Amino acid sequence: RSEIDxxxxxxxxVEDMPEINPEAPFDASVRQAIAADDAYIEALASERxxxxxxxxxxSAGRLQLTGTSNVxxxxxxxxxxxxxxxxxxxxxxxxSQLLYDGGRTSSSVNRATALAISAQANRLxxxxxxxLEAARSWIDLWQYGERLRxxxxxxxxxGTLVDQxxxxxxxxxxxxxxxxxxxxxxxDVKLEETRLxxxxxxxxxxxxxxxxxxxxxxxxxxxxxxTDQARIMLASLHESPTLLFGAANVLAARAALDAAQxxxxxxxxxxxxxxxxxxxxxxxxxxxxISIEYSFNDGGRRQNVLKTAAAGLEATEAxxxxxxxxxxxxx
Length: 331
What we know:
Layout: H1 2-8, H2 26-36, H3 38-58, E1 64-76, E2 84-100, H4 104-170, H5 176-211, H6 227-235, H7 241-262, E3 267-275, E4 285-293, H8 301-330
Antiparallel strand pairs: 1-2, 2-3, 3-4
Helix pairs in contact: 2-4, 3-4, 4-5, 4-7, 7-8
């Protein structure tokens, strides 16, 4: 996968991307086209988002420190005659550390990691698709331009030849059938030239979509990857970004199922806290201990989440098998 990453520019910064220069070598121009494409930029941003999510879910297993502050008044009305109002400020500090949650946090981290790998693989797939289309647009524009040049030269030569045949037919050296046959060939060449002009125009539009500008002279495209290297990559089925994408999604679905199962287990926390009093003559309250939480009834939410996760895993595994079969068929 590292070779593909090197080719696709692993982590380019959008603001630092170079301008696309179609005068640059073929492979460099294709790399720039990939990096500047909106679909690739979107995939890259999604990958960064997925990687950041790993830290978000991992934070649930770390020490939690919370502070509170209250400003207000307390009015005591037990005695209608001697009622009193106390104003003041109080603050509190609490510390909580997760001890056990049935594997929910670890499953969530595993799922986030798998989704990050999936996002990375999706970026590679997008990069391959964009690179293929960009290279194809370059090849099409070049080959239609070359074919137009050749057919124009051919039409010019045939036009001269038809004029000569016409003069020879006028002098009786050739019959009129030869002239008619030559003119029909000229018509065929002109029709082919018209078709190539239309295809060349479409190729220019496609090329401009990827490379922004169309140069006056487009060089012949070189090999993006050596033929021997391409054969090696085709034989390495397990390194396919598409296969990695499917496998990562399966791992994410399995982690989601594990997280759903963990909801049926209790949670244990180590908690400690301190709360300052409203009045100066009162003492500060300090608490510490282990708390255990368990939901006995949630209206069927956990059971439905579990069924959904199981169905999601089954569907993801089926898609992964389909991906493998398609890759094997393609090879």
